[in-house]
Amino acid sequence: MSTKMDTAHDRKLDVESQLDSRMPEESLPVIDPEMERRVVRKIDKHLMPLIIGLSYLDRSNIGNAKIAGMEDDLHLDSDSYEWLLTIFYISYIVFEPLVLMWKVLPPHMWGAITVMGWALSATLQTVAFNWSGMMAARFFLGAFEASFAPGITFLLSFFYLRNELGLRCGFYLGAAPLATCFAGALAYGITSGHFHSIAAWRVLFLVEGLPAILAGVLTWFLMPDSPEKAKFLTKEELLVAQARKVRQVGTAESGRPHGIQWLEVRAALLDIKNWTTALMYFSCNVSFASLPVFLPTILAAMGYSKVNAQGLSAPPYFLAFLVVILTTWLADKYSQRGYTILVLSLIGAAGYIMLAVSSSTGVRYAGVFLAASGIFPAIGNILPWVMNNQGSESKRGTGIAILNVVGQCGPLLGTRLYPSSEGPYFKKGMWICAAFMLFNGALAMALRFRMAFENRKLDEKYGVLGGNGGDGNLAKNLKYGGRENDGPDFRSRGSALGSRGDLRPPLDLLDPESLWID
Which of 172, 302, 315, 361 places its Cα 20 to 30 Å from the Cα of 331? Predict the structure, then answer.
């Protein structure tokens, strides 16, 4: 074992020495574009998007379990069922700061711990025989998922440059509606069958939870800690990965992924833009949290049988997955994430308005498609917007923690909007969700113009950026803190006004003048 470790260590040192010998500080190293594309394709292939899909699969299947008999077997009324949803988000909020553990422990270790934790918690829902037992399982499920799901987004920022991050976040976050789509189809298959010794809803939890345990084991062995340590890259490709890392953090001697810079944590906490995106996430989550857990119930209330309601809950999420991928790609390509979120918010609001005003089954089902196609893609664009506008890894981790601590309060409201007494149309809940989606669009526009204003101020201070797409000048950025994210080429991405720069304003931690605008 020690021989293998020594060999890996020697390999890393050899790569770094070659990179240092080839890379003067005066300029970025020349990288063959085809070689870089090959490295990115290999990273894409090995980052296991199925993991995040399984996470959301386990969280959303309680809605399918409810109409498959869980409600009757556990003697749940409307309030007790809503508490099963609420307790998940309470623990999710409380344990959210643990997302920074991705900077403290190697990602393959922390990822495996969190995956295994929520997998076991999800599976143990199978053996809950009363409300208290199910509450305990849901609490631990939320605690472990609090670090994993947002942590994957944080981890992606270790591997991808700013203009690459949005689409990759889209694929990972798009796994949420895709997994919900799969959950609906799987629930249809399971609940339409007959089991003599075990209730169908228990089989549902078991079948959807056990694969996640295997995923936890695989995470330990297959998840890379960072691109420059990836075992699947050749020696030449590791040099490219190191050069990309220098483009991100300004030095080959970064402590990634270990260590938290507390001054940068403080800077992120003081940044009003982090709190604005957190409020946007809250608004989306009011609607997002209610849709997967209540959609089967809503469909059943529209006159479909419980089994058919399971199957009909799948197609809207598949469309949502496609829209997530399309919109994150467009937002990356045109640097217009603010307008993208506005349009998606309007689509989601329109869907909820259709659900609120119509009693027609066809119109209401069409409204479900619009609601899902607005909510999920809006979230899929909010998260990379946060990551794209943080200056360092500690600030990204803090930004994603703020986003989730505030944002996950949304489900505390969203999961209580559909009491059974207001069925079958749940008009009040639909109107509230529509209002929050409109509010989300307004916040996106306010944040966009705030970023555009700051970009113009930075153009006045440092000069307008050239056509480098926000990659920055390494020598100049080394002078201003050693990171492409923190130097004078640092601009807010998603406003496309004032410059083509990618991220937000520079932060010299010793310069109070720049503290508030990073």
Answer: 315
| Residue 28, SS3 per DSSP | coil
In order, the DSSP letters of 415-456 are TTS--GGGTTT-HHHHHHHHHHHHHHHHHHHHHHHHHHHHHH
* Nearest of 253, 254, 251 to residue 24 by alpha carbon: 251
Note the Cα 6 to chain centre separation in Å: 36
CA 279 to chain centre: 15
Which conformational region is residue 472 in: left (phi greater than 0), alpha (psi within -120 to 50 degrees), or beta?
left
Residue 193, token pair as written in the block: 């069958």
Which residues lie below 8 Å from residue 263, measured CB to CB, with a gap of 6+? 509
Query: For residues 76 and 70, what is the distance between their CA atoms, to the nearest angstrom?
Result: 8
Kindly report the three-state secondary structure assignment for every residue of 116-166: HHHHHHHHHHHHCCCHHHHHHHHHHHHHHHHHHHHHHHHHHHHHCCHHHHH
Q: How many CB atoms lie within 10 A of CB 265?
A: 18
pLDDT of residue 252 exceeding 60? no
CA distance 198 to 195: 6
CATH code, 35-234+263-451: 1.20.1250.20
pLDDT of residue 504: 34
Query: Cα 114 to chain center, whole Å?
Result: 15
Q: Which two tokens stand for residue 317?
A: 């999420």
Q: Left (φ > 0), alpha (ψ -120 to 50) or beta: where does 408 sit?
A: alpha
- Give the Å distances, CA to CA, from 342 to 26, 293, 374: 41, 25, 10
d(CA 226, CA 87): 34
- Please give the C-alpha separations between residue 88 and each of 58, 60, 105, 281, in angstroms, as whole numbers: 12, 11, 25, 17
What is the DSSP code (8-state) at residue 490? -
Other Cβ atoms within 10 Å of 439 Cβ, number = 18
> Are 156 and 383 within 8 A, CB to CB?
no
Q: Which of 442, 472, 294 is nearest to 378 (CA)?
A: 442
pLDDT at position 378? 95
DSSP 29: P
Secondary-structure percent of the chain, ordered helix, strand, coil, rounded to 5: 75, 0, 25
* pLDDT tens digits, one per residue of 142-173: 999 888 878 888 888 888 887 788 888 888 87
Q: Residue 281 is encoded by which pair of tokens? A: 């996430």
CB contact set of 272 (below 8 Å; sequence gap of 6+): none
Where residue 15 falls among pLDDT bands split at 50, 70, 90? very low
Contact at 8 Å (CB) between 432 and 301?
A: no
